[in-house]
Amino acid sequence: GEEVAQTPKHLVRGEGQKAKLYCAPIKGHSYVFWYQQVLKNEFKFLISFQNENVFDETGMPKERFSAKCLPNSPCSLEIQATKLEDSAVYFCASSQLSDNQPQHFGDGTRLSIL
Amino acid sequence: KNEVEQSPQNLTAQEGEFITINCSYSVGISALHWLQQHPGGGIVSLFMLSSGKKKHGRLIATINIQEKHSSLHITASHPRDSAVYICAVRSGATNKLIFGTGTLLAVQP
Fold it and tell me: Which residues contact A28 (CB under 8 A, 6 or more apart)?
């Protein structure tokens, strides 16, 4: 597609439950990035992929967060045993295989942990 | 201190005014993004620049690499320009973005 598609738009989970978010990058884009926006405008980088390979995972909380980008499937970000502090908007962005290309953002998934 | 600082944090303008939002950064970068986030939450990439100046409609973005500073200008501002404007720098070998804390712009008719 020509837009980064994130699903679902909203996700509500009870504390301790699992949450799984999906991202379909723009067709032809090789890089996928996940960012977490908490409070007003605090964005935190989580993880990036080059095709199906993890490119940079320096922002990922190791214990409960995992992510995948498998061929012919949307990328996913999964949070096990969710905590209240995981409540945030999770944005996915994709870009082409070039340093000169901008990142294109999806509309985000708002995750609410109750 | 944040690696990317924006000013002002909040800005209220009257319709038609010329607006400037500033961004300073302290890390080495390969490019700088200006992003727009509307109340609904979606993020639109306005500009990506690594040198000089870019213009799109009423929006102008400039960057001074030596001074580690960028500005976003809006000419003839309109209420529909009301949004959060975010500066984000691309840093490091993996192209991840480091974000500023945003500028909330309200343009009043």
Answer: A96
Of residues A31, A103, A107, nearest to B45 (C-beta) = A103
What CA–CA distance (Å, rounded) separates B106 from A29? 34
Over chain B, what is the mean pLDDT? 94
Chain B nearest C-alpha distance from A100 (Å) = 8
DSSP B51: S
Say yes or no to pLDDT of A61 above 80.
yes
SS (HEC) of chain A:
CCCCEEECCEEEECCCCCEEEEEECCCCCCEEEEEEEECCCEEEEEEEEECCEEEECCCCCCCCEEEECCCCCCEEEEECCCCHHHCEEEEEEEECCCCCCCCEECCCEEEEEC
pLDDT at A62: 82
Cite the beta strand spans of B26-101 per DSSP E.
31-37, 43-49, 52-56, 59-64, 69-74, 83-90, 97-99
The average confidence (pLDDT) of chain A is: 93
Which chain B residue's Cα is nearest to A6? B42
Q: First CA to last CA across chain A, in angstroms?
A: 33
CA B82 to chain centre: 13
